[in-house]
Amino acid sequence: MASDTPESLMALCTDFCLRNLDGTLGYLLDKETLRLHPDIFLPSEICDRLVNEYVELVNAACNFEPHESFFSLFSDPRSTRLTRIHLREDLVQDQDLEAIRKQDLVELYLTNCEKLSAKSLQTLRSFSHTLVSLSLFGCANIFYEEENPGGCEDECLVNPTCQVLVKDFTFEGFSRLRFLNLGRMIDGVPVESLLRPLNSLAALDLSGIQTSDAAFLTQWKDSLVSLVLYNMDLSDDHIRVIVQLHKLRHLDISRDRLSSYYKFKLTRKVLSLFVQKLGNLMSLDISGHMILENCSISKMDEEAGQTSIEPSKSSIMPFRALKRPLQFLGLFETSLCRLTHIPAYKVSGDKNEEQVLNAIEAYTEHRPEITSRAINLLFDIARIERCNQLLRALKLVITALKCHKYDKNIQVTGSAALFYLTNSEYRSEQSVKLRRQVIQVVLNGMESYQEVTVQRNCCLTLCNFSIPEELEFQYRRVNELLLSILNPTRQDESIQRIAVHLCNALVCQVDNDHKEAVGKMGFVVTMLKLIQKKLLDKICDQVMEFSWSALWNITDETPDNCEMFLNFNGMKLFLDCLKEFPEKQELHRNMLGLLGNVAEVKELRPQLMTSQFISVFSNLLESKADGIEVSYNACGVLSHIMFDGPEAWGICEPQREEVEERMWAAIQSWDINSRRNINYRSFEPILRLLPQGISPVSQHWATWALYNLVSVYPDKYCPLLIKEGGMPLLRDMIKMATARQETKEMARGGSQHCAGTCPSGCGAPVLGQAQLPYPDLPRSCWVRISGGTSCATSLGTTSRLRGRKRPGWTKKK
Question: Which residues form the Protein zer-1 homolog-like C-terminal domain (predicted)?
Fold first, then answer.
């Protein structure tokens, strides 16, 4: 199982400082520019971590706002020291590099920083005397500068800045530079002249750069140990140059088979040349190549027995001449990866889970087009078979999704894979920390990429988590995202259905503060708009029913949300739905449950006091829909209205006495042993109807409800009744002269059911207060008798759970 090891103190402090820059490390100068406090000195270990974590937070955290002058904190090398920093995406601009130009950088990785222009090329010169490693991968515009063409005023009005390619920049003066990555550089950059001043390159990446003459590489034949020529259209001339680089330990000539057509075909002869001439080779990547000649031995000639990495047994004939197994061999999307004996400790390919995971690991950072296809293979493994390296797979997919937040293919395949990697089958193997990371990247995907497939996959993945518990750390954010998805203009029914399900689950078992906050986000209004749209289409489907159920949950003991429901024509929608869908039992139950919540709010009950509404509620008393539930909920609504007394009955028809008679008749028709499709977490709204004589029928409904629940589900509801002080109320009601005899009998029965129940739910017998020798003692001093021994127990604690859980649904795949 994955570890739930807490974050290190360094990580926690770094995160806190970055989220509170002007209160910890710096202060605001002129309310805009950050400046480091004068009494602070930070060593390189801390400065590097601050910058790299800052980049990570900007790219991955939703609630982190970048500061425009962040890099100015590191402008003075006397108080801060930067040595190794990795910057990526559009976060970095010219002025940011300019702010740190005085630092003695040893390692600078700039990945896909497309906002950098030729101004940053000049800034790079500031680091020339110290820089050892430099990556400009994907910085397509860094070799462009703005030029204002003289004498072309009319053109300048249309295009004030013209982009021109810088051709005179070289790496002159970068005497210590050993590692250089120019991958995906813009066409037209004169690579040969650019690199000529570098005397001792050890590693060079020219991915995606096309050059017909590679002879310039030979100037580093005695120093170059790593060469990457991914997606370069090779020729025999290139191969002749490569085999002269006798110090190479890593060679990558792989390609993306789907991106473009390449004339070059890899042959058995070429592979043999690599093995013969490059004696130090430890890593070779030939992924994506079409093998022109048969490089593999026949099945009949293959060594029998277990899979071997020994070169002498290799199924790839040229590699039998290797002196030792390769550390890595890239064979992704080649036929060779399916052979039996491959002389390498780690192989990327598509044969099995291990090869696929190796491919994702090797290509994630710089090759999203390959990574997405590898993740798609992992998706099939997780869906059809069983993933044996779950934790590794999850971490790799999370990394890919973080690294390529705006890449459609990565987001689609990654979110689909996460759905299967987080299902219940694998849950026990995942730590809380890991599952939170999954939730973070899922929400990032929903936030960053408004694409139907991504949204659907992300919503389905969230269904694999315990809701709301596992989503509570991102509660506000996930609700906001789901509400945006539920915009009625969207036409994808499947996404709406899943999103409504999630919304319902999120408000089902949370405290009232959470419900009120979500209501203010527009939850109630959004659900009403969904219902209105379905009504116009005359469709009562799961989205319609789930929307009413969600409203039932969010209005539970939250008067503000109840008022919002009324203010936005909720009652009209209720009547219209009742009329349009008279046979939909689940719909009726959800609507009546919601109106029960509204009726519990004394200030809102006058809005229900109309002839139309009271007549509808009265007629629903006779409904047999969903067992007794619709009739029961209708009677609950009327019970609270009756509780306000005769003077609040402001209508002529129907008369109060008539409605009372129908309520009595309905209650008497219910089976007291009915099993219920409802889940109470608090009896407070019911209990307040007991100690009163204004409305005996309301009192009777409340007593029936309690008696039914404690007799059918005693283990669950007897402790709740005791904890919320229901037992004294029932006993007092039995003594009331205004209470009807049948009500008293029911109250007596409920009291007897719970008289011997421990409120903790443990099932042990409890002494009732009347039995105590010292009835004046506080309830915390009561004694529980169990198995002839006694132990102190507190019966006076109030349950933290407020509100009632409403019916939900089984998750459907």
Answer: 401-748
